[in-house]
Design goal:
Blueprint (H helix, E strand, L loop, with lengths): L18 E5 L2 E5 L9 E8 L7 E2 L8 E11 L2 E14 L2 E15 L8
Parallel strand pairs: 3-4, 3-7
Antiparallel strand pairs: 1-2, 1-6, 5-6, 6-7
């Protein structure tokens, strides 16, 4: 398989860049945040998530490892809290197994994200 590298990719407030992340059978739009290196997903039953928030359903992956370590991250728009998890994640032609990420159970004071 031949893979072309992404060249001259830039993201600014006036431009959007659309990537998808696949976590087993679930597909998500990737929202790029240039001020953060965190990868996280809201999960089913998330307190504070709007109806439009895409949520990860851990029951759809037989290989997901939900941890017990609690995490909380503060952003300019709010706080996300939950646990660490690991599973196989694919973005384009790239697959990482296992990839650590946050599974958020609660979002507080987050501004609504525009869905494109």
């Amino acid at each position: 398989m031949s893979v072309k590298p992404y060249e001259n990719v830039s993201v600014s407030p006036s431009h959007s860049l659309s990537f998808y992340i696949t976590l087993r059978a679930q597909k998500f739009d990737l929202v790029l945040d240039t001020g953060s290196s965190d990868l996280w997903f809201a999960t089913t039953g998330c307190a504070g998530c709007s109806r439009n928030t895409p949520v990860l359903d851990p029951t759809k992956s037989s290989s997901m490892q939900l941890g017990t370590q609690r995490i909380a991250l503060n952003y300019g728009s709010g706080t996300a809290s939950g646990v660490l998890a690991r599973d196989t994640i694919t973005m384009g032609p790239f697959t990482v197994n296992p990839q650590a990420f946050g599974v958020y159970l609660s979002l507080l004071s987050f501004l609504p994200l525009p869905l494109v």
